[in-house]
């Protein structure tokens, strides 16, 4: 990558913006300032090609490229890159790729599929058009030899793919079905040797803007100075599905629904003669089709997968394949009312096949487990389905193993769940939607900081969300339709964002980054000052105070929101002091001390707990784990209450599982529909508590358990964390990944993956003692376990720990403090060290020759 930086120094590009057609813009207002908007707010898809010769294959041929909105690049028919990453449209990013591995001596070809989305969706928001930019654009430049460049300009060939469209998005996922008429897409257009003589010349776009008549090459308004990609290019692993069942549906007429999802769901309810499959055939499946009938196929990947859906079809021209992808079992062959799967959990594809063998792959990634194909043709059809899973790559090395197989399964399930939510940003879930929610990402990030040696995505989630509204509040989700519409916000999500920034301060010790983000954090904290009442507490804070899906009161004065604000003030104070900014640190300290005194109003001395709310001067009887845990992590709870608060957090007999987001609020008595979470309370308010508020407190849902576990450790009981993590066993009964809640929602939601962090940082006990791991802290607390071992990333490499009842062994690339259960502390330097727990201090430094032989076998670290 250093060579690519030398090739592309900061400053103006050499290439020009191009597109496959003229800009579809119209002038809305000419005075006093010209205002443009996209004339057609529907997605447009097209292709660009460039042929060139190479006399000798270079060692490196660095290229950089980007597009508004997305692109896919092939070099000589081989896919080389997809991008760019999501961000605010005024901060467009470019990707860097080395073309050398794809080049051959002689003729070469670059082929690019480009798409302009038109309307904002779950991972993109449009720019305000300027000049001819803002309705689709692409730029590319590559150095393929001394003084020889390939630049995007009018010499490229271009063609619109009008047969490749997306239907209007529907449902919370903001995703429309992708429809491809393969008869309109030229066969082999990405490969060398294809004749593009009839294609048009690419259109060079004018970049003028108000008051600027500068160069036509980037940087350009509205995209700003193009920025390098902050995360890795996504990986690609093929996933195969297993055929579970076949059926036939007699069609009532020749008409069909425009949306393939609607069509397949309609056929599902009318399917007959279901044939279950015990074994799935290898390779393409052969079908006998006839007019007036649909052949239905149900495939199951065995778990949620996320990537581009690929279809391989060998059929007569005009064969129609409709695809319904879903996270949940489609009840194949049973009557199914329309939309039974829920709009938010469906992905649709329609492919009209050309004659002969063909392959199509969706432009955008989808998340699903089940796939139902409806095939309409005549004669023999051979068909195959797979998913090219495209996730942010996970660096190998970190691992966790222990004496309890259940916890090992839970740890791996959490890591897989986060991986499936790691695209070009941390997304809440791959199936229902793929938005980068500002608060959800804090758990994804913490999991990656302890289990992934690549911290780029952990850093990017903080930077991506740092696009505040004018009042300082962060959007509820970054770089998407919700950020563009700005219809609502989640105040507590901005406070979790500050916690994510604090995590980066602790793990990376990056002063420049923390200093750049600190003003954003300050403005978030100042936003809350407008809602500070005379008693010093935040009161009647507007927006969606989410907390999590549990039945926690937030109206009036909320203890949870006040405590999260106090935690953020404390973390801000710590970061400001570390940067030498005494003024900001003092400001936060003063506010936090005032809040500490005011927070006592939530303490219920009769019941020995913090109440959820104070409304109209009255403290609520309802209370929750959330209130106790937030008070502890914010440092608002006096030490003399520690024993009682710990009891409230870990004694499950005191808890009730209650959620206003479930039907009738009782998730244990009336489960939500598969995949659904009732949301009536969002618009009509919560129900009155139906549980015994005198003796029970509401249990946290999976997301807020990270705060609960932090509080348990802070109260001096980190050894309890391993047993608390066993609560996630119930989620594995539903799927091999973690669900959004204890009772319903998507079965793959990254915010539920807390155990994967906690088993390393609390049970194994590895955390940074000083920013950037200048000093590590190793404090194993096994609880009921006999032994545990694992590896945690640091900026200088992996830190290995193996702990049992008899000894603790550490191999560390950084100095560390070993803190034993009896409170004794030992300071060690870099190297391998072992402490015997049965012979007093018994500290022994092992010789370097034993370092590899004496540690756990590395072949199992995955």
Can you describe this structure?
- The chain contains 18 helices and 46 strands.
- A hairpin with a 4-residue loop joins β32 and β33 (609-610).
- It is globular and about 80 Å long.
- Helices cover 21% and strands 28% of the residues.
- The model is unreliable at 335-343, 669-673 and 839-862 (pLDDT under 50).
- Strands 13, 14, 18, 19, 20, 21, 22, 23, 24, 25, 26 and 27 form a twelve-stranded mixed beta sheet that branches. Strands 7-6-9-4-12-15 form a six-stranded antiparallel beta sheet, with no helix packed on it. A six-stranded antiparallel beta sheet has the order 28-40-41-42-45-46.
- It is an alpha+beta fold.
- By DSSP (H or I, 4+ residues per run), the number of helices equals 18
Low-confidence stretches: 335-343, 669-673, 839-862
Strand content: 25-35%
Radius of gyration, whole Å: 29 Å
- Helix % is 10-25%
Number of strands: 46
Please identify the oligomeric state.
single chain
Q: Roughly how many Å apart are the termini?
A: 25 Å
Global mean pLDDT: 91
Taken from the alpha-carbon principal axes, the silhouette is globular
Task: Outline the biggest β-sheet.
Answer: 12 strands, mixed
Structural class: alpha+beta
List the main descriptive attributes of the protein structure presented here.
single chain; six-stranded antiparallel sheet; alpha+beta; 28% strand; globular; 862 residues; twelve-stranded mixed sheet
């Amino acid at each position: 990558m250093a060579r690519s930086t030398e090739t592309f120094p900061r400053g103006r590009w050499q290439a020009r913006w191009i597109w496959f057609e003229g800009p579809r813009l119209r002038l809305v207002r000419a005075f006093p300032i010209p205002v443009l908007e996209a004339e057609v707010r529907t997605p447009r898809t097209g292709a660009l090609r460039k042929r060139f010769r190479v006399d000798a294959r270079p060692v490196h041929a660095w290229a950089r490229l980007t597009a508004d909105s997305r692109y896919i690049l092939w070099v000589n028919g081989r896919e080389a890159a997809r991008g760019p990453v999501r961000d605010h449209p005024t901060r467009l990013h470019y990707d860097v790729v080395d073309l050398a591995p794809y080049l051959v001596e002689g003729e070469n070809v670059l082929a690019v599929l480009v798409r302009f989305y038109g309307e904002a969706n779950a991972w993109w928001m449009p720019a305000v058009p300027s000049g001819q930019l803002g309705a689709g654009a692409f730029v590319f430049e590559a150095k393929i030899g001394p003084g020889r460049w390939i630049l995007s300009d009018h010499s490229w060939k271009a063609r619109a793919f009008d047969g490749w469209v997306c239907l209007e998005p529907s449902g919370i996922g903001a995703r429309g079905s992708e429809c491809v008429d393969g008869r309109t897409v030229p066969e082999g257009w990405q490969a060398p040797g294809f004749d593009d003589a009839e294609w048009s010349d690419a259109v060079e776009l004018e970049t003028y803007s108000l008051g600027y008549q500068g160069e036509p090459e980037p940087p350009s308004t509205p995209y700003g100075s193009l920025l390098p990609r902050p995360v890795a290019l996504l990986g690609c692993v093929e996933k195969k599905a297993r055929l579970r069942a076949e059926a036939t549906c007699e069609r009532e007429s020749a008409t069909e629904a425009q949306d393939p999802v609607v069509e397949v769901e309609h056929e599902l309810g009318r399917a007959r003669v279901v044939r279950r499959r015990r074994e799935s055939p290898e390779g393409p499946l052969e079908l006998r089709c006839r007019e007036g009938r649909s052949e239905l196929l149900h495939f199951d990947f065995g778990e949620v997968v996320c990537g581009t859906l690929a279809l391989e079809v060998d059929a007569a021209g005009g064969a129609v394949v409709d695809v319904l992808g879903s996270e949940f079992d489609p009840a194949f062959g049973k009557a199914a009312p329309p939309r039974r799967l829920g709009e938010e959990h469906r992905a649709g594809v329609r492919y009209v096949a050309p004659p002969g063998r063909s392959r199509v792959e969706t432009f955008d990634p989808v998340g699903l487990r089940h796939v139902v194909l409806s095939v309409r043709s005549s004669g023999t059809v051979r068909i195959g389905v797979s998913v090219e899973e495209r996730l942010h790559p996970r660096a190998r090395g970190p691992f966790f193993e222990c004496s309890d197989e259940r916890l090992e399964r839970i740890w791996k399930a959490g890591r897989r769940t986060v991986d499936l939510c790691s695209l070009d940003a941390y997304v809440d879930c791959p199936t229902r939607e793929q938005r980068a929610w500002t608060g959800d990402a804090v758990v994804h990030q913490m999991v990656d900081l302890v289990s992934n040696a690549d911290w780029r995505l952990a850093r990017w989630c903080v930077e991506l969300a740092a696009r505040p509204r004018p009042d300082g509040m962060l959007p509820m989700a970054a770089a998407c339709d919700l950020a563009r519409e700005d219809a609502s916000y989640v105040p507590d999500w901005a406070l979790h964002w500050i916690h994510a920034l604090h995590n980066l301060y602790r793990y990376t010790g990056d002063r420049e980054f923390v200093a750049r983000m600190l003003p954003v954090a300050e403005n978030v904290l100042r936003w809350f000052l407008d809602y500070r009442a005379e008693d010093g507490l935040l009161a009647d804070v507007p927006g969606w105070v989410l907390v999590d899906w549990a039945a926690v009161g937030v109206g009036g004065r909320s203890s949870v929101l006040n405590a999260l604000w106090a935690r953020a003030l404390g973390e801000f104070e710590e970061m400001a002091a570390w940067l030498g900014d005494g003024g900001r640190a003092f400001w936060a300290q003063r506010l936090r001390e005032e809040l500490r005194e005011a927070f006592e109003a939530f303490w219920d001395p009769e019941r020995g707990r913090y109440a959820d709310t104070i409304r109209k001067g009255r403290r609520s009887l309802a209370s929750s784990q959330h209130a106790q845990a937030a008070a502890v992590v914010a440092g608002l709870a006096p030490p003399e209450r520690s024993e009682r608060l710990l009891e409230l957090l870990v004694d499950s007999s005191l808890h009730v599982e209650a959620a206003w987001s479930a039907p009738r609020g009782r998730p244990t008595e009336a489960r939500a529909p598969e995949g659904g979470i009732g949301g009536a309370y969002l618009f009509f308010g919560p129900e009155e508590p139906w549980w015994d508020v005198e003796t029970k407190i509401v249990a946290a849902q999976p997301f807020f358990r990270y705060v609960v576990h932090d509080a348990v450790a802070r109260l001096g009981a980190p050894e309890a964390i391993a047993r608390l993590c066993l609560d996630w066993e119930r989620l594995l009964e539903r799927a091999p990944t973690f669900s959004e809640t204890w009772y319903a929602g998507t079965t793959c939601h990254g915010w539920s993956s807390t155990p994967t962090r906690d088993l390393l940082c609390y049970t194994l006990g590895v955390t940074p003692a000083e920013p950037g791991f200048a000093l590590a802290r190793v404090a194993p607390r096994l609880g009921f376990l006999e032994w545990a071992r694992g590896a945690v990333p640091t900026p200088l490499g992996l830190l290995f720990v193996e702990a049992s009842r008899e000894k603790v062994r550490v191999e560390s690339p950084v100095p560390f403090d070993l803190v034993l259960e009896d409170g004794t502390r030992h300071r060690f330097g870099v190297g391998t060290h072992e402490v015997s727990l049965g012979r007093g201090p018994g500290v022994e430094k092992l010789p370097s020759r034993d370092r590899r032989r004496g540690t756990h076998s590395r072949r199992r670290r995955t």
